[in-house]
Amino acid sequence: MKVFWKSLRLKYIFICIFITFGISCLIGITPISIDECKCDANGTSNHYGSHRIMNNKSRKSKHRLAILVPFRDRFEELLIFAPHMQKFLAKQDLDYHIFILHQIDRYRFNRASLINVGFLEVKKDFDYIAMHDVDLLPMNNELLYNYPEKGPFHVSSPELHPRYHYPTFVGGILLVNRGHFTLVNGMSNKYWGWGLEDDEFYVRLKEAGLKVTRPQNVSTGTQNTFKHIHDRSHRKRDMTKCFNQREVTRKRDRQTGLNNVSYKLTGTIKMTIADTALTVLNISLMCDKSITPWCECDKMDGPTEVKQKERKRSESM
Ligand SMILES: *[C@@H]1O[C@H](CO)[C@@H](O)[C@H](O)[C@H]1NC(C)=O
Ligand SMILES: *[C@@H]1O[C@H](CO)[C@@H](O)[C@H](O)[C@H]1NC(C)=O
Ligand SMILES: *[C@@H]1O[C@H](CO)[C@@H](O)[C@H](O)[C@H]1NC(C)=O
Ligand SMILES: *[C@@H]1O[C@H](CO)[C@@H](O)[C@H](O)[C@H]1NC(C)=O
């Protein structure tokens, strides 16, 4: 009995020694420098900096992309969006940075004005923008975010988008270069609330003679090219129309645009979500109620307040 215990103890001692040896070996072979240099390796003094360390190889793409994401109250979606985009775009040789255009004023959400503001704030350092919904994740690596030299490139084409399939659709994800966005005077500032601003932008592009191109011969379809992470039952879209909003927003706007978006940039926050660097711009939009009284519908001074069940795309624009 005693002999049995002795041999058992000896066995455990050997096992212990073996494990200790194994662990020391593992420690020995791992690289010494685990913390990498987080410094700006390319040494450029951009206003907003680069999203990641640029090696020589990625510097060869000379155009810089600003991903502009209009935003309000969608933190859960942002937590998914940011790391997804980083992983997705890592496979492409791009120099990009993500900007969250955070509307902090009390007015209704204005996606188009936020994009105008984002553009004005970054145009010094970036050559093209991606107007990007926060709830639409590209899933197919054939979707490229390259510099759209000849005209706007609509990544979320109606043939691929999970929901919108009409031929003039340019919402979701649209790449536009700096020259073209300036040429059409950006987007209209009249679209407070959800919808139609992208259709108006399509008319601007068309009138300027710019041809929108889209991904060709993509191997996936409407169900598996993008992932739509918006939970519609949880977050209701603001489809209210008040005053004469419905009439006005069906027409091409020749009054407002990039050259007269009225706002204050009240703060700039650099943050990192799961290793993805991004910049949040706190934007306070101003509303001229003599032009767009519908920037606040809930104030009961509106003569007509009509709720729309579903966005009706205007074909007449
Ligand atoms: C990086 O690029 C510069 C100039 O383009 C070149 O002179 C240098 O050799 C490159 N370094 C490496 C490690 O490739
Ligand atoms: C797409 O496929 C068609 C037919 O298969 C081909 O003619 C066309 O050149 C392709 N387009 C691109 C952009 O690869
Ligand atoms: C934008 O310009 C138009 C005239 O082109 C003017 O009617 C409008 O008040 C301006 N809007 C703002 C917000 O400055
Ligand atoms: C940005 O806006 C948020 C929400 O209004 C606020 O809590 C935060 O302090 C602002 N940050 C800066 C730097 O302005």
Automatic annotation (TrEMBL):
What sections of the protein cross the membrane?
12-34
State the compartments where it is located: Golgi apparatus membrane; Membrane
| Biological or metabolic pathway of the protein | Protein modification; protein glycosylation
Enzyme Commission (EC) number: 2.4.1.-
Q: Which UniProt keywords apply?
A: Glycoprotein, Glycosyltransferase, Golgi apparatus, Manganese, Membrane, Metal-binding, Signal-anchor, Transferase, Transmembrane, Transmembrane helix
What GO molecular function annotations does the UniProt record carry, in alphabetical order?
metal ion binding; xylosylprotein 4-beta-galactosyltransferase activity
Topology relative to the lipid bilayer, per the entry, is: Single-pass type II membrane protein
Q: Tell me which cofactor or cofactors this protein depends on.
A: Mn(2+)
InterPro entries linked to this entry = Galactosyl_T, Galactosyl_T_C, Galactosyl_T_N, Nucleotide-diphossugar_trans
Top-level division of the source organism's lineage:
Eukaryota
- Domain named Galactosyltransferase N-terminal: which ranges? 57-146
Q: Which reaction does it catalyse?
A: 3-O-(beta-D-xylosyl)-L-seryl-[protein] + UDP-alpha-D-galactose = 3-O-(beta-D-galactosyl-(1->4)-beta-D-xylosyl)-L-seryl-[protein] + UDP + H(+)
Domain Galactosyltransferase C-terminal: from-to ranges: 152-228
What PROSITE patterns does the database record attribute to this sequence?
Answer: PROKAR_LIPOPROTEIN
What GO biological process terms does the UniProt entry carry, in alphabetical order?
carbohydrate metabolic process; proteoglycan biosynthetic process
> Has the keyword Ligase been applied to this entry?
no
User: Which GO CC annotations does the UniProt entry carry?
Assistant: Golgi membrane
Record-linked CDD domains: b4GalT
Q: What class of enzyme is it?
A: transferase
Family recorded in the similarity comment: Belongs to the glycosyltransferase 7 family.
What's this chain's function? Answer: Catalyzes the transfer of galactose onto proteins or lipids.
What's the protein called, per UniProt?
A: Beta-1,4-N-acetylgalactosaminyltransferase
